[in-house]
What does this fold into?
Amino acid sequence: MSRLLIVESPTKARTIKKILGASYTVLSSYGHIRDLPKKDMGVDIENDFAPTYVVADDKKAKVADLKKAAKAADEIFLATDGDREGEAIAWHIANVLKLDPKTVKRITFHEITKAAIEKALEKPSSLGMHLVEAQQARRILDRLVGYELSPFLWQKVRRGLSAGRVQSVATRLIVERERERQAFNVDEYWSVHGSFEKDGESFEGKLNAIQGKKLKKLDIKDEAAATAILNAVKDATFSVSSVEKKKAKKQPPKPLTTSLLQQEANNKLGFGAKRTMTLAQKLYETGKITYMRTDSMALADSFLQEAQAFISGAYGPDYAQGPATYKTKSKGAQEAHEAIRPTDPALTPDKLETKDAGVRKLYELIWSRTLASQMPAAELERTGINLEANEHTFRASGSIIVFDGFMKVYRSAKETILPELTEGDTVNATSIEPKQHFTEPPARYSDATLVKIMEEHGIGRPSTYAPTISTIINRGYVERDDNKKLAPTEIAMIVSDLLVEHFPDIVDYEFTAHMEEKLDNVAHGKQDWVPALKEFYTPFHKNLEVKTKELTRDDVMKDRELGKDPDSGLTVYLKVGRFGPFIQVGEWSEEDKKAKKNKPKSVSLLKGMNFETVTLEEILPLLELPRQLGTTEAGEPVTAQIGPYGPYLKAGRKNASIPEEFDIMTMTEADAKKIIKEDAKRREEMKKPIQELGKDPTTEGNLLVKNGRFGPYITDGTTNVSVPKKYDPNTITREEAIELLIKKRARPQRKRKK
It folds into this structure.
């Protein structure tokens, strides 16, 4: 009997093929094979939002392969992922292959292991149409918002912008945090720290009370107050006034959900949400971890037993004190999923076969966190020591690990150990040092904290966190600052303010969460998807029609008048254009604009200058640009200026970006020569391949990963394909490169416009 099993990922297909052997043909659909059309809305609003699905051009060859294999098969199994997206992919495959959705053999498993796959094959089910309808409702809802609201933004703000039901709410969160930062008033305060020593053992303490009154954060307001304290204790003898010891337990961490994984990977490894999910996908598709999109904290009984056996064997019976179970608190938890865990606890991180350092680090995080969740609490002895001198009390805190428990495999911080001291002991103060501080505004969101706040508000679901962050960055609404935190651009603030004022439901946290609940109800068969969409769409569309007529672009894109240019006497305006905020001196009449003449002097703002708070005094130096910084060997001027993409040097016909460490207003001729030299060196380096991956089996050409004008790309000498952002060009494998080239060749060639 000929059996065909279809999954959505080629890597997943290869892993399953190794498990099932020659008795099954395993093929991949490469994700969705049908979707709404790109150029049209593809939704019949008058006919209960009936969608029109089309097979994308780059999927037609794949569909032909699947149809051919399906004709030759006696039995067909659809084994896409077990969530809404996976169910929808399976439903589209069934429709394209003309399989009856009621009788098609649908199997799901949450880990790619022999036992899990064989168990699923023994009891195939039919398609879960409630899940399909929930995915379809989300897709149509997002299409309606995007296709109707985005053109409104093009008309009132600028072309190329987009709006989305989840992305616009995420952008609002980031904008509001930035406004909190701008409104924050900075206060100065000081703290006093001491280094102490007893019998050769040193430890640290901090002033926390004067004359028995405990200090608050802002009590030491300036250097004079800190110096007075220093003078009072610098030559004093310190004695131990009290020693407090308490037994404490540190509970093991919970198993990983998608949200927790993204937060932990960001905090511990510095990975963005998108990179985390890409690496987790690789681990899942190669059978190393369970499915990585989940809200559940449940763990399979079989795994709990295996984990206890492994822990006992590896660390001793004291570390295996029975399996622990955790309740899922999140609303709308993913359907029947487990937490993210290793498929085999005995596969320790050092045994993982991979050349990808990121994959190894993420696996180690998942493995150690999961094993730790099944180990006992750590037992600590916490110690607090008060040191007195001239009515000034310094506090030293530390702890001793009595029993490490789960910390044997998963430790978040080092414990501070203090020397054995008793009340009345004297200690030596080796140094007393005041430190200046300033209160800081609320931190910008990182990937981790944004995911956390979105989850708390019920915005989005596990599958949407990473794509949402990527989308708002790619759309130009958000950029990463020097600390990789998420900062809004000026256009994000304009669009967010516009949506908050005129389309409050779209960016309302509770409304968005309520919509997610409705989609969850559809997935569980508690609500029909059509009324859910009508309830949202009817008032949204009516409001959009009104606002389109009422609002003008000038109502939205309001210029700021900064004052008069002292040289020309003309008004200096701050405007927002295609490439961000810029200064314009004087007016530009509509007639001159159409004729493209008499263009006023203009210059872009520097990075870090805020559109809403920048002053005339701050921007006047920019009007002196360009600055000449010597000449080239050929006698051509070298100038520093600001372009649409930031500060750069122009040396004859060559341009070189000015790195952030140089100030365009103060940099010297020597700085310019250094930058030009480094830029030339970099351009030469870019000509070298990033990787050489051997021969392409199809064309026999040399497979190379190279740097190009628009980023890294793969070539066999004939076909070129960009390296998708989910891949690292330094570590992409030969197999992955070949797959991308095959997909590129299968696409129909674009017709060039004459």
